[in-house]
Amino acid sequence: MSVTTTMDHFILIVLSMCVAFVPRYLPMRIFASRKIPDWFNEWMKYVPVSLFTALVVKDVFLNTETYTFVGFSNIAKILASLIVIAVSYFSRSMGLAVVVGLIAVALLSVFVPV
Amino acid sequence: MKKSATSLKEVFQIAMPLCLSYVPIGLACGILLHAAGFNFLMTALVSMLVFSGGAQFMIASMLTIQAPLQTILLMLLFLEMRYALLGSSLSQYVRGTSKKFLLIFAASLNDENYAVNYLKFATDKTWTPQNALSVEHFSLLFWTVSNLIGSLVGSFITINLTIVDYALTALFIYMIVMQIKNNLTILIIVISGVIAVITMVWMKSTMGLVVATLLASLIGFALEKILVKKGMKKSFLLKKMKPNAGRKEISKSGD
């Protein structure tokens, strides 16, 4: 099912709200009285890192229209990403990392392919 | 000196750095949602009901590549699953609150207000669940208003979306960097990246992301199990890294 009209958007928002709410609520509710199983914690630890990496790789190294690997041709994004890594590591500030990243990619896109 | 209960004004001061960091990200997110076809009202709704930077950017970029509803929801589920972990670690501090409170509290929990609240709960004995809820609502307010301004900006001027879209990637890179605790994490990042390219090129869809996430997280889980079993806790892969600036940004605003 593709999502195009305002009604579709509304349905998408309501369903997204449920998807966003359940993982926030249920474990907090359940583990307020029970112990968290170790295997669950140990597996969950690697889910965010794996997902975030896959998403970054999709934006930087893939063409999302044809799903082809573009190697190192998005030079602006690759360089900006290195800058974002450095800013994140040294400042630990999310806002600064995003702002510097946006400025870097905007400036770099003037000189090299995005 | 005995510390008394925290006033709403003090809570606001604690939440301030967090709220301000939402402004640029919220603006970018609002612009993208507008470009994805969301009107002003829908942008307000999604910011209040979903209230997750990552999820909203994901919705916007998935809509621009015409992804089907079920794929968007499946990706969101993976994206939001990390809250199971955050939620369960906060559970010890919200014991004894009502069911209604827990519902409201869970609805506006996200990465950044979690970080602030977890640290306050752990270090400040006077920090109450009610204070924590106020932090969530201050951040929710700033987030929603920034998104709405972004939505308006997007309808007045045309902006190169490839560049604005990069805000999401920068956000994820930041979250990756914050999660690096040992060399095994770095190995998993490399493994996940390689698998993601292979699965997405092979499946020609965003389902590749789902498969790559599952495979890479299970490999990480298995590798850690094996290393710990072999008594290699102090090995090169599992040795704890010293965090850089610590949690300076958060503790500066607190205490």
UniProtKB/TrEMBL annotation, chain A:
Keyword Transmembrane helix: yes
Record Pfam families: AzlD (PF05437)
Keywords: Membrane, Transmembrane, Transmembrane helix
Entries under InterPro entries matching the protein: Brnchd-chn_aa_trnsp_AzlD (IPR008407)
Membrane-crossing residue ranges in chain numbering: 6-22, 67-87, 94-112
Domain of life: Bacteria
Identification of the protein by name: Branched-chain amino acid transporter
From TrEMBL, chain B:
Annotated membrane topology: Multi-pass membrane protein
Protein source organism: Ligilactobacillus salitolerans
Gene name of the encoded protein: azlC
Stated name of the protein: Branched-chain amino acid transporter
InterPro entries given in the database record: Brnchd-chn_aa_trnsp_permease
Location relative to the cell: Cell membrane
Entry superkingdom: Bacteria
Record keywords, A-Z: Cell membrane, Membrane, Transmembrane, Transmembrane helix, Transport
Family matches, as PROSITE patterns: PROKAR_LIPOPROTEIN
Primary location: membrane
Name of one Pfam family that matches: AzlC
Positions of transmembrane segments: 12-34, 148-177, 184-203, 209-228
Gene Ontology cellular-component annotations: plasma membrane
Family under the similarity heading: Belongs to the AzlC family.
Regions annotated as coiled coil: none
Biological processes, Gene Ontology terms: L-valine transmembrane transport
